[in-house]
């Protein structure tokens, strides 16, 4: 191994080790704090103020889907806030304490939440992987080659599977309301099918020679598959080190070779690398897409269904020139 690579490896190892130490220290602090508050008469946070059982999700998209299934029978909360980047999130002591008091934790799985294994380690709280049963697409390049693409929720058809898993998990948690969860789930799956049909119909209007979806992160494989778009991204999965010169050059060459009319970036990362592509090719920056997080309630994508509609509309307008 070249000396430069060896130094990089040592730095990466030290960074990973430091994060692990910080995480475990935070976990210990949270547990100690929780025990002290319990001893002093602090009420458990596992049940909401209204006595409902609490379901904790790893990010806002899952929380919104879960609320549609739970209705008014459960309290659903998200660990991360609107606008947060989910892949490399570092849980706080408050997150861990909240999780220790929850009745159920939902995570996406498919290696999305790199931090989740340590997060739940030592917690006596049941959890469910909502992507279980989804047929994953594989990442085809970069350091993540061969691993499942974790962004399965970018296909509303996959989210139907998420809903079924939530219905089961909620019914196990609260059997008295199992029929309500099932009915809510079926109603929401009908909405998912409607937004799927709307998305594919909208993107079907993109001319064949313009059907290229170029984004910062490779988060749109499932959407591109459903809509018949060709996908190209700068990096595969959000990480500490991304947008290398080689990755940007590859995107520039692709945009030039295919006369791509517009390129995009996601809301939770900087669009600076994609702006380099824009500057080098003269293509248009088509807009901001949402993947890993919803917006605040007054923003463009307060719900998951809004997220899919928004992304389909932004992509369609930019690739067809309708938004010019």
Unreliable stretches covering 5 or more consecutive residues: 1-46
Helicity level, as a percent range? 40-55%
Indicate the mean pLDDT: 86
**What profile does the largest beta sheet have?**
4 strands, parallel
Please identify the structural class as seen in this structure: alpha/beta
N to C succession of SSEs? HEHEHEHEHHEHEHEHEH
Cα-based radius of gyration, to the nearest Å: 21 Å
Shape: globular
Distance N to C terminus: 50 Å
Give the amount of beta strand, in percent: 5-15%
Spatially, the strands of the biggest sheet line up as: 2-1-3-4
- Helices, by number, come to 10
Count of DSSP E strands? 8
Structure at a glance:
With 324 residues, the chain is of the alpha/beta class.
